[in-house]
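call fold(seq) -> tokens
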Amino acid sequence: MRWGNMTKFLIAVAAIIGLFSYYILPLATSIKQGLDLQGGTHVVLEAVDTPEAKVDEDAVQRVVKIIERRVNELGLTEPIIQRQGDRRIIVELPGISDPEKAIDMLGKTALLEFQDESGTTVLTGKDLKDAQAQIDQSNRNLVSLEFSDDGAKKFADLTARNVGKHISILLDKQVLTSPVVEEAIPSGKAVITGNRSIQEAQQLAILLRSGSLPVKVDVLETRTVGPTLGEDSKQKSQFAFTVGTAAIVLFMLLFYRLSGFVANIALLLYVLMLLLALNMLNATLTLPGIAGIILSIGMAVDANVLIFERFKEEYRAGKTLRAAMEAGFKRAFSTILDSNTTTLIAAAVLFFLGTGPIKGFAITLGIGIILSMFTAITVTRYLLKMLMNSNVFKNGKVFGA
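ret:
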């Protein structure tokens, strides 16, 4: 029985170390990275009043939805789009290093108009059903348009009345093309030519598909976080994580010896479970998120410190090793539960009332606290119980008592 428990303990420790060594790198590198780690573009937009359209709550909400559609069409990884105050919108685009391209995509009103030679607008983007970038047989980059049923009737009437004349296609009051109508087009389909590259055609198609902004939007601030700056932030955060974790491991070994070793093994499992949870939630890791992870590691160790200090008191009061350890876990549980519950409440407040990176910090902190309670109360206790049941170590000093 003695060596059977010791064998189980060694197998459990080897399994945790093996899993950690095998999965830690793939899990850590597969988590999506935010703007501050990956680099990209930060844009602050503000809706402004014009004689044609006044800004109200509904208009700003529609602007946010349209910008979300435009950004999602780009296929970016975890962009951040959030309100700031009554009129401002913050957009963070990881991986986009060209601010002009971002502004051109986000800030365009995207008002599409079809006008006859007299300048009368017959159709607008509201009559549009779909827009797609294409390359024709002559290798020209164009945007194919398909109108709604009502729009198709308007377009057929426009082309029928203007055979041999020019009709102009305008985007935000600027003429894109002005072709001559050779014959009536009853199919409800048209093309826009004149795009220099397929990328331009794709961008125009996205703008038209996502719809026009209901009010004018000005760009207040543009900030580019280059890949170099993002890499520098990542390296500093990794260094801080490594140094902090190493200091914690060393502290636990020096002050609590074999108990500290068991706590460190449980800590490896905790880090692995935390990264797995972030991957399963498809979370995006930012610098505040890394801070939340480091803080939650400190909370995990704090729970073990409370348990081991209670264990010391019980052992020095005359109890056996196993009885003192059980009493230590029971007496420390209420304190651990209270402190972690209050921190969870704070994390919940940050999540529901915060925005962007603050939410990322709250998520990593909240998940970390829940997992740290599991590893500190369950995993550490299970490993210590197997170790003490083996009766290989009978001196309390070996366990830091």
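The two ends are 25 Å apart (CA to CA).
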